[in-house]
Specification:
The structure is a single chain. It is built from four helices and eleven strands, in the order ααβββββββαββαββ. The chain has helices spanning 11-27, 37-49, 126-137, 171-177; strands at residues 57-64, 72-73, 82-83, 88-92, 95-98, 103-106, 116-123, 150-152, 159-163, 180-186, 189-194. It is globular.
């Protein structure tokens, strides 16, 4: 889970982050909303701040920044701004940093410290969360290795090895629904790892 409170230097970032903490405390059952008016105030604040945005996003890409890389985000980008695949977003020691896919930009790095240059997200319809929950409850993930082009890693059974020349259509999407994430991709082979393992 990621929470975007805004630029650290913006006064709004403090009150937005505070609102999220109150809502989180209530959601976790640590406080009762009836005894803390700050929760209702926080909900109102965040609803106003997120008006027009989808309620659920999927994190698609994280651009890591290593020390000495001289990463510089181009000026003018803001969170939730649409970007296109191949669009120039930043510069570093090796040259241009392009967006690897079309999506929404999240948390572009403008300060001098940090390990995340930016994230790319896209809308994830709540319908798919319901589908994912049903598939996981039915334990459909246990049958994946029977599908053509997918096998368990003999050394690490919780990992799946996917031959992309055989399992081509919507493979990553189906794996995501069942809790798997891409760990490694090389040419025609993909290694998928179940979240939390």
């Amino acid at each position: 889970m990621v929470f975007e409170g805004g630029q650290h230097s913006e006064p709004e970032a403090v009150s937005t982050s505070e609102a999220a903490v109150w809502i989180g405390l209530s959601g976790a059952g640590l406080i009762h909303e009836s005894g803390f008016p700050e929760v209702a105030v926080g909900r109102k604040r965040l609803m106003a701040a997120t008006r027009g945005l989808p309620s659920v996003f999927e994190l698609r890409y994280r651009h890591p920044v290593a020390p000495g890389q001289e990463f510089r985000m181009l000026q003018g980008f803001r969170s939730f701004q649409p970007v296109k695949s191949g669009q120039l977003l930043a510069l570093d020691r090796e040259g241009n940093v392009l967006s690897p896919e079309t999506g929404l930009l999240l948390m572009p790095l403008y300060q001098t410290q940090g390990e995340d240059g930016f994230f790319l997200i896209r809308e994830f319809h709540p319908f798919w969360l319901t589908v994912s929950e049903i598939l996981r409850r039915l334990r459909v993930g246990r049958l994946l290795h029977w599908l053509p082009g997918i096998q368990r890693d003999p050394r690490e059974p919780h990992r799946l090895l996917v031959d992309r020349t055989v399992a081509r259509w919507y493979t990553l999407e189906v794996l995501h629904l069942l809790g798997y994430r891409k760990k490694l991709e090389e040419a025609d082979r993909l290694v998928a790892l179940r979240q939390g393992e």
